[in-house]
């Protein structure tokens, strides 16, 4: 290879030299042709100049001859004049040839210099090529040396590989012997397994009366293998779908609500004039949107709650999907109901005098988009109702068509997303056109902004749902179609329900098996302890001592019991005596208690003291009660009077307490609201101050550039006037905000004082 490369390099050098020689020859030829062309050009220009001068001279001579013919000059003078003119022409020709000769000498000198320069350049290029050839030769030499080294290494490697091949041949012979032994063992194992298989088949045929896996109907009742990871994944996906559906529901509610507001505002404002009966009916139907949109979230929530870790979630067992499908069908019915009114409303808006041609075109685009939106919902409802069939009518959808249904749902979601993009785009263009209408109000602009924000939220939500469903499409098709072992599918929803009941029973049985047994003494240890108890006398003496001590404790407790029984009898006797004394002392003072009934409100505190004293000494408490209430006809009337008074007092205090609690809660809520308003006012104050700073900076910049921009003075004066008006409005808003902040601070202080007083 190196020699071939060297030869190629030599051929390249020779070719370069030949090319340089050919280029030199071509250069010489080109120079010669160029010189010839230049000479011819110069001669032609010189001849043209001569002819032009001769024509001029002839014209002058003609004019002179005509002028002199009148005077009748002599012919001798004219002939002498002609000879002088010919001499002058010849002199001019000679002078021009001399100049041409000088110019040719100059061109020849320049060509010679250029030739020398080219020769020097070619020589330098030849030297460079020679140096390159020397370098290439050095590279070739180094490569030849490396080639010889590699040849030696390859020869050594060849010897090593030959040795390895010999060892591998030996190992191959050993492996052949081993394979023969393994084949013999395999034959023996096959014979043994065949005999065992025959025995097991005989046992199955004799002992097993029924094999339920042969029939799909019976096999559907078998509990499949529990895939906990699959269930957790499905629950996670259902949770994500629930969050996306909640976002979609909020966006749809906002869109229908703001559309209702828009119908009542444009093209006729309901506050100033009556809108058309069509728009009245349309707004009435739109007002009912929550009753159709909210159930979608509820149906998805029920479906999410039905997917747990313990169940088997497939399309045959997903019974809650039917409720979601019904809610979606009701919402589709709502869309079909409002679609003609919406289309007629757009047509009526196009017929109004305020509608321009561009606005009419945007309305017709929205007209088409609304039809497409309803068609997309119809597709989604159709495919989701197909997914409900395995849990209601399994013959309506085959297992082989599940994948097709899921892919069609994904395609419908993509179409739904595209339709919403078009609606948001066309509606934004329509909103910008409606702002230019002369009767456009701020309420209309804000309503259009709200509708656009709801459409953007709806588009983003549907985009999330579309990407979510497309990313998990393979998981849905794989996880929602597994069944019992050995079977292809669940036969019917009834068999799936029975399978779930069997699964619950199996789980309960497994849990009962996993219950830990009660702690007990090991059998060997119990036997050893029994022998010790039967044989040892020390254990008997210890038990006798424990029995004696327990008997002594029982005797002491009996004595204490008798003592406290006697004490209780004495206390009862004392209590009866004191009650008798109380009855005697309270016999004649009923009228005084009626007059002193106003003093009873202070009796609550005294009663507390008496109860505290009664805990210490019951006899003393009875005497205090007799002192406090010295007049009563009998004990029952006195007790009723005290009871009624305290009940009234307790009711009054509880009512006061409840009133104070409600007032405190009310004041707390007011304080929180005031604090929020205060924080909002401070934020608005900061924003307004920043705007004021920016406005002041803009004013300073405008004033600084006033001298440089005198040509645009009028436009800047208008801008300055507008900015000053804006500043005035901002100052007014700032003053208002400051006043509101001061009032809020005062009200918060007053409320805090009231709370502290409470």
From TrEMBL:
Q: Does the keyword Transmembrane helix apply?
A: no
The cellular location(s) given in this protein's UniProt record come to: Early endosome
Tell me the segments the record calls region Disordered: 68-88
An annotated GO cellular component: early endosome
Q: Which residues form a coiled coil?
A: 20-68, 126-192, 540-592, 671-719
The Protein phosphatase 1 regulatory subunit 21 N-terminal domain sits at 1-94
- Main localization is other
Q: Which UniProt keywords apply?
A: Coiled coil, Endosome, RNA-binding
InterPro entries the record matches: PPP1R21, PPP1R21_C, PPP1R21_N, PPP1R21_six_helix
Q: Where is the composition biased (Polar residues)?
A: 77-88
Gene Ontology molecular function, alphabetical: RNA binding
Q: What is this protein called?
A: Protein phosphatase 1 regulatory subunit 21
Q: What is the lineage of its organism?
A: Eukaryota, Metazoa, Chordata, Craniata, Vertebrata
